[in-house]
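Why do we care about 3D structure at all? Because function follows from shape, and shape follows, mostly, from sequence. That is the central idea of this module. The next example makes it concrete: a single protein chain, its amino acid sequence, and then its structure expressed as tokens.
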Amino acid sequence: MVNRRLLRVKAFQQLYAFWTQERAQHQLAFDELTHIFQPDLSLMVAKEEQMPRLEGLRKLAEIQLTEFFQGIPTEEIIPDESLQAAKSVFKTYQNNTKKIAIHLKKEMVTEVENIYHAYLKILFYIQNLSQIANWDEQRRLLETPLKTSQFCQNRVLAILPKWKALQQAFSDHHIGWSEDEETRLKKLFIEAILVDETFISYLPKSGENFAEDIEMIRYLLKNFLLKHPMMAEYFEEKDLNWHLNKDVIKSLSTKTFKVDALEDLSLQVLALQWEDDKRFFEELFEGSIEMDQELNTWVGEQTKNWESDRLAMSDFILLKMAVTEMIKFPSIPVKVSINEYIELAKNYSTPKSGQFINGILDVISNRLVIEKVIQKSGRGLIDIASK
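And the structure:
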């Protein structure tokens, strides 16, 4: 099942993408000011004569724009041309970054929900192994005495097309296969499964014993559909985050067939409380963006004396996410949040990041608890007494 550690990783990836694009929009705003204050070549005034005034207006507009970005109220009166230009490009920046955040949040949730789609796809492949076994025997005819159609007697394969919940899930999620996928599965069957001694020795016994039938399904799932290089290559091509998602997909698939009787078969769920996890996921992403100025202040005060090589962008994002989580989710203990982001830093930032993140978060969390910015309840109170 999907757990919150994976959700934090997904949120981190999208926040990294957001702030990368936000920096680009930030620079575009200043570039647009340069464009706005270009000489008007249609005037009967030489470009060189226009430039001093335009340069002055541009510099004032840049100062004003910087104050907009920093959230600083300006007291200086500047020419209306400069003020309106700064307002215009800042509004464009706000609109664009808002659209980027909405798109990335939607993409983030869709990617996690697609894990379930991939799980169902695996079950669809398994169900259609009987079809491929029949096809294989027909294509070989009298070439060999191997009767791959015997595989269709497997009790698990026989029940899958009659399993209403599974078929409904296939329909709801539009599960099927393309010609390319069918060809790949046939190739896997011919080049890998068909020459496997365990599979060959099983065929004559197919359907005789449920325990052996279910064990063969688990065997094919583990060694071929989920592990074989031919399939791994395919999944990696289709899913850029396969290295993150594969463990969840493997777990869901394996648990489906970890049963002692046919009547015990049941579809797994993406998460026990997906709506709650989804809400956590979205609020963590949104909060890290909405509280950006406060987060920059809190984190910036604790990192201003650190060497620049220790302030990787990934570290800064992880710090802001951790503080957001501490503030936004009262039921999550502070130590749990700190430990989670230490682990993320070890895996997704620099070698020294884990220790760095730990030290900074400890100081920030202590301060924000004292200032009552961080207020915990329920389970979240477990470690609050030590603050």
